[in-house]
Amino acid sequence: PRAAMAPGAVLLRGFALPRETALRAAIDTVTAEAPFRHMTTPGGFTMSVAMTTCGEVGWVTDRKGYRYSPVDPLSGKPWPAMPAPFRALATEAAAAAGYPGFHPDSCLINRYTPGTRLSLHQDQDEKDFSQPIVSVSLGLPATFQFGGPRRTDPTVKFPLSHGDVAVWGGPSRLFFHGVATLKDGAHPLLGRKRINLTFRRALE
Ligand code: MD3
Ligand code: FE
Fold first, then answer.
1. What range(s) does the Fe2OG dioxygenase domain occupy (predicted)?
2. pTM score over 0.80
3. What are the extents of the domains in the chain?
């Protein structure tokens, strides 16, 4: 099923379900090389969500600011390559949502455990905002909070479940969004956590 969430934003419920086994194996491959870590915001807060990356560049934050880096600051080495099942899923989901020709160069992997959250923010560290963002939800369900172009715009809540894929393009690309505090639970495949894959084209 395909549903519009906002202008340019499309929710593909269950789109990743047929690929869950391959995705899970690919996540394990990436995190063996580039482990999950809790990064620090420029304001000095430690993020409750743990993150890692694969692809040509990875989104990082520390006291110096937010940016894309070609190397993992933990190892000093390039990020792991983007696994083929990741790449295929992102490109196919974007096309299904009306954005053909999407070729991400970065995949941020977010790990939520019960009690963690991602506060309201915009994704604006990429060069070309005409490129959409594809996000994949795996594991425990979450409540996604979706606002508008201004921080003070009212938010609407969307439940996101295992296998759901959302594509954010057009005007929604720069909308404020966040994830409410994750409720406790256990998922049959992933256990007590939620994994989110966020595919972006960061460079030109
Ligand atoms: C709406 N991740 O990594 S995915 C992020 O579930 C991020 O981990 C959340 O926000 C998560 O930056 C939400 C959905 C998402 C991703 C990017 C967006 C929604 C978006 C960009 C613009 C508008
Ligand atoms: Fe975001």
1. 103-203
2. yes
3. 2-200
- 25, two tokens: 């194996």
Q: Which CATH class is domain 2-200?
A: mainly beta
Q: How far apart are CA 143 and CA 92, in angstroms?
A: 24
196 lines ligand 1 (CB under 6 A): yes
- Ligand 1 within 6 A of 168 CB? yes
Q: 1: pLDDT confidence band, cut at 50, 70 and 90? A: low
| Long-range contacts at 169-172 (CB < 8 A, ≥ 24 apart) | 169/8, 169/9, 169/94, 169/97, 169/98, 169/99, 169/131, 169/132, 169/133, 170/7, 170/8, 170/9, 170/132, 171/6, 171/7, 171/8, 172/5, 172/6, 172/7, 172/8, 172/9, 172/146
101-141 residue pLDDT tens: 999 999 999 999 999 999 999 999 999 999 999 999 999 99
On the 0-12 / 13-18 / 19+ scale of CB atoms within 10 A, 157 is exposed
Which numbered atom of ligand 1 lies nearest the CA of 160? 6
Q: What is the pLDDT of residues 12-58, one digit of tens each?
A: 999 999 999 999 999 999 999 999 999 999 999 999 999 999 999 99
Ligand showing the shortest atom-to-Cα distance for residue 116: 1
Q: What interface predicted TM-score (ipTM) does this complex get?
A: 0.95
Question: d(Cα 138, Cα 142) in Å, to the nearest integer?
Answer: 10
